[in-house]
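Running co-folding for manganese (II) ion.
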Amino acid sequence: MSLITDHDGPRTTIQIIPKDGFETWHDTLPDAGRNWIGRQQFKGSSGQMAWLPDDTGAPDSVVVGWDGTDEFAALGNLPFQLPEGVYELATPVTHLQLLGWGFGAYCFDRFKAPERNPSELLIPHDADADALTIQVNAIRLVRDLINLPADELNPSRLAEEAVQLAHSYDAEATVTVGDGLLSAGYNTIHAVGRAADDAPRLIDFRWGNPDHPKVSLIGKGVCFDSGGLDIKPASGMRTMKKDMGGAANVLGLAQLIMASGLPVRLRVLIPAVENAISGNAYRPGDIIQTYKGLSVEVDNTDAEGRLVMCDALALAAEEEPELILDFSTLTGAARSAVGAEIACMFSNDDSVAAGLLAGSETSEDPVWRMPLHAPYRYMLDSKVADTVNSASLPYGGAITAALFLEKFVAEVPWAHFDIMAFNIRQRPGRPEGGEAMGVRAAFEYLKGRFGG
Ligand code: BES
Ligand code: MN
Ligand code: ZN
């Protein structure tokens, strides 16, 4: 971990200079310091850093600017900007700024030796070191899972990772594999995943006191999305190793919940499949009898996410938990609507939605609510089945996908996150690559609602 609690050796101090305190701070500097700052053109903009000298004129301590907006901007770039070593803060720091350091120290180095190690920061005594460690580890797990390519992270490996996580917190896990899905009635998960070499499966684990309120998390685990017979163009397929990003986000959220000991009865469901092409692939026009009993006419095999999710949602809804949250890299339309850096959230419950938006604010984890606009349901009408999987018109694609999912949750309070799960550019605390989106917002909400 790049956020550490103890260190005996030397360390370099860092001061955060808030924008509105810049002038006052600058005026108090000795001449030498002012010269150094001038030479480094330090203006105190967010994340900008500079060195200050000691009495002998040697580089001694670090200052970094912060404009009071993005908390991650203060320290998020420093782990790879500062020379390797141990640092400590000489000015007050917020929990989110510390998280920014922890998140910014991430690097996916499984297949390429890193050029350097991230620098380490001593966690101040008055900060919540346990919470920081838990959050950094959870987000690391999410990113690693998404960044792993599909040749490694196939459905069986995703199931192994989920079961390993479950077991490390004494949760009970079951995995239903291949034809077992058909015997149990999860025909839709089977149909989507049956053409792949690695069999489709449904991961199901439960943790916590059975008397506590039930919360169920469901994550889209499409380990690779070729589009199926409605094959994607190369440009669209290129990033589809991340199509299990919902599952990764759910595992990260589950880890947050379990590691913090949140008093809930947690259930995690992950349909893990590869949307592949073969002689036995499911086809446009096929009609699938879903677990819930609704028949679905396949309009497009590339709308596979909502298909694997619908069986898991129906299963979760059966036991009427207090809350269902799902995370899915469900639609390109959600990306068109809000871009790559905001999670779309849909909910059939206004108080859940309001709570999640409040959690989004406090955790600086951007979430935007979208409407489950009932009049658009007509776009899912089928002439030969209860519903189609994908709308007949190209409008409001994230909404019609969410309306499809809604058919399977019945009256259970539910929120659906349609996420990118990937940073397409580097930002402080948010390196390019796999990313958790909406997870910290959701955790904030769950803590406030169910926390002891
Ligand atoms: N996994 C994709 C959605 C996606 C694409 C998420 C790019 C994030 C970035 C999903 O399975 C898909 O292919 N959706 C189709 C649905 C369409 C066929 C109705 C889409 O969005 O184009
Ligand atoms: Mn698809
Ligand atoms: Zn997909």
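Result summary
The pocket of manganese (II) ion (ligand 2) is lined by residues 225, 227, 302, 304 (CB under 6 Å).
The chain has a mean pLDDT of 98.
Job closed.
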